[in-house]
Write a structure and sequence with these properties.
7 strands, Nucleoside Triphosphate Pyrophosphohydrolase, alpha+beta
């Protein structure tokens, strides 16, 4: 059986809370293009989850972090109209400590901001991001 998406890929996200705000990005590419989510990206071969999160947040947002332990994991599976697999990511979100920098959208992010819980009411946020933020007590 031929697949358009060769295999599941591992992705990582970093949950960074600073002064009552969480760092989120507006995705500039699929999956979830145009929606707000935890920043992150793909884990490269030979890279730890922590190293991947630290690299991805710097590339995507210009923010330096120290990534910690995993706090949430989920599958992101999308199919096209014909039922063929478009994306399959296994995402592991890590707790992270803010070190320095201010968010600037780069790489595949269309926007990056520190957001308060009340700010999320007026934004289109990926549902699993809201689930995670509720789970950790941010919302």
């Amino acid at each position: 059986m031929e697949r358009s998406f060769p295999a599941a890929r591992v992705g990582v996200g970093a949950v960074i809370i600073r002064d009552g705000c969480v760092l989120l990005v507006k995705r500039g590419r699929e999956p979830a293009k145009g929606l707000w989510a935890i920043p992150g990206g793909a884990v490269e071969a030979g890279e730890t989850l922590q190293a991947a999160a630290e690299r991805e947040i710097l590339e995507e947002c210009g923010v330096v972090i120290r990534a910690g332990e995993p706090i949430f994991a989920f599958d992101l599976i999308e199919k096209d109209e014909a039922g063929a697999l478009k994306f399959h990511y296994v995402i592991v979100d890590l707790r992270a400590e803010y070190i320095s920098g201010e968010p600037v959208a780069a790489d595949d992010a269309a926007d990056a901001r520190w957001l308060k819980p009340r700010d999320l009411d007026s934004l289109d946020v990926v549902p699993v991001t809201l689930e995670l933020l509720r789970k950790i007590g941010f919302l």
